[in-house]
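Exercise 3.2. Students should predict the tertiary structure of the chain below and write it as structure tokens, then compare their answer with the key that follows.

Predict this chain's 3D structure.
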Amino acid sequence: MSKTVDQQILQQYECGAARFSDKTGHEHYQRHLLFDHVVWPDEASQRERFEAVARSLRDLLAQRWLLTDQTYDRENPKRVYYLSMEFLIGRALTNNIVNLGVEPYVREELQSDPHQDWKEVVETEPDAGLGNGGLGRLAACFIESLATLQIPAVGYGLRYEYGIFRQAIENGYQMEQPDHWLAQPDPWEVTHPRQTVQIPIACRFELQDGMLRAVPGHATHLLGVPYDRPVVGYGGQTINTLRLWGAASPDHFNFGEFSSGDFVGAIVDRVLAETVTRVLYPDDSTQAGQALRFVQEYFMVCCSLADIVARFRRTNDDWRLLPDKVAIQLNDTHPAMAVAELMRLLLDEAKLGWDEAWDLTVGTLAYTNHTLLPEALEKWPVQFFELVCPRLLEIVYEINRRFMTDVQQRYPGDHPRASRMSLIEESGGRQIRMANLAIVGSHSTNGVAQIHSDLLRTRVVADFAEMFPERFNNKTNGVTPRRWLLAANRDLAGLISESIGDTWITDLGELRRLLPLTDDESFRSRFRQTKRAAKERFADWLKSTTGQIVDPDTIFDSQIKRIHEYKRQLLNILHVIVLYDRLRTDPSITLPPRTFFFAGKAAPAYRLAKLIIKLINNVGRVIDEDPVSRGRIKVVFVPNYNVSVAERLIPATDVSEQISTAGYEASGTGNMKFMMNGALTIGTRDGATIEMAEEAGEEHFFLFGLNAEQVASSRRWYSPRWHYENEPETRAALDLIFNDYFSRDEPGIFNPIRESLLDHGDYFMHLADLTSYADTQQKLGTLYADSDAWVRKAVVNVACAGKFSSDRTIAEYAAEIWNALPCPIR
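Answer key:
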């Protein structure tokens, strides 16, 4: 492209905001309504209006998007490639408007249309079904920070047609419904069919007797079709790309088979191919679900590495430059096959020798671990590799042979160590240990909070940390303040900017300038008003969407995250039952009115987690029906938790529940979002909560319970029955559950909870921490009665949240792992 055209593009972009402040922006919007949907503007539906607004915004950013990629090719900087099976990006419209800096103009244009309702337009956009929990939301924050920091980057994932599921609650039970978020065209994505890649599969799948079976020895391939989404950095200067792969069959329709009467055979290949990216997280309780997940990971890795190599070769002809120009970050073990696939590319296509290929692979790849649960460290049956990708299995075997030689030379005669460190697990059927593969095949392994990184080194993979101490490091997680404060909490963001300026938006450490304002009565009063307004907005939204009515004058206490035993929603509801039993025993006791919010999804096959959801809802129903507790305690389960729900509830929350069993939560990021929105944390010394308390001072937190060392050291002697027999409130709460007080119409349904807590050892130590938790909750309630003291602590929390920006985290990755520098788009 000529310099003259470059300048024209830049000039057009910089005038882009003006398009929304004059008739041009309105014309763009009406043009999309008319020509995309063939509808008159005054007859358009809200969905059609949303698509027109989104496409108008995409028109605005398209030139800078192209210019970003062109600049990277011209400047040839080191690029970061972030591989993740999840990107929980939420809605894109508001985020893109805020980061482009055109919100006043867009809002003005929409409000000038008598047929347009700004709020309804925003609500029309579905949450993208591309992730489920913290891992995916972290990836979304990271790619936004990469763009804001002007670091050349591409995110790679899968374009799931269906999210994990839509959660409905029926009679207290979680019911899973399809989440077809792509039922209508997504105005943000751009398909690039010319950049489609072919992915070899060593078998084919056929329908035999109504069952899907793999037929080895009949090689075929899948097509990986790239769908790109813009990742807008704050200020709109850099627009990076999130590239999602959709799976397709090379033969979309076999007309010959169809004409000959084989109607099923004509379409089965297409259906099977598209199944690969049909749904996020297939049910892995079955072998078929596990196999599909394996194919998803293989497909994502192969597509992404093919694209990465193509980008590298556009501007580099020397393979030895690969680690200098390419940084590939593996977000957990899901993309760990990248170790073997990159070796295959370097060995089979670049024709390099093993040692050179291995050095380049290790120098290019880095691995982030996200779990301390051994069962969450992926292992894949060797049989899956044999059926789908035998060449990668050959490479894994050779990596392991050479690595085991190194281990035996380093630790002669230590066979147990060699067995633990092997990439192959021999017991119970041969499996590939993907975490071991990721650690051996990369130059960096990082945890995501200081305690997590320490436990990773000393417990989970201690053998590897001893052998490769230089590879292990910590990168405490962070969240983007653009979405989680600037966009989600407009009132508080406005108050902060009015008080200290707006530089905090890209330098969250500036929030510390709020600390002197804790003594400013006027500031505290306005701070209190922002919280009250957020609570009222959430109460109105909840009533309009679910019919549930909550009182903004009560304490809003929230635990919103994936439902899992180690996250201990069960501990939370046990405490609610303790409070309820106190009221039943003595209705005259002082108890600050409190609304307990729960939200989160349980994996469809996780029966105990689903039963905990049922218990939460049943307890809430009984409390609502009892006059002694009505108006004093309320339990609300908010269904179908997603990013959009979090954006509403987090600003409204007074109390953040971070109560995982110490030593089990890698980091957490919801804890950070609550902190920067002025909630006070009650929590264990676990994950990033420890560092949050260090930043603000433990006196501004409500910490309780066993620490990670105490949890580990008490495993041999811990007896949950002791707590049941010696703590009257614990026994009374459990008796209410197990005597069917909360399940009179379904007697015995909570027996599995009794078995987990009393018969099977209470592995996550709910009863060990219940008394400490209840005592700390009482202190919290006492403080809330002193409104001024509460607000002072809330302001301190906001002021000390600066460390927990994803900008800081990404800057550390860039400097200490990737060696990547900003590349401004001039």
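Discussion points: The domain at 3-384 is CATH 3.40.50.2000 (Rossmann fold). The radius of gyration is 27 Å.
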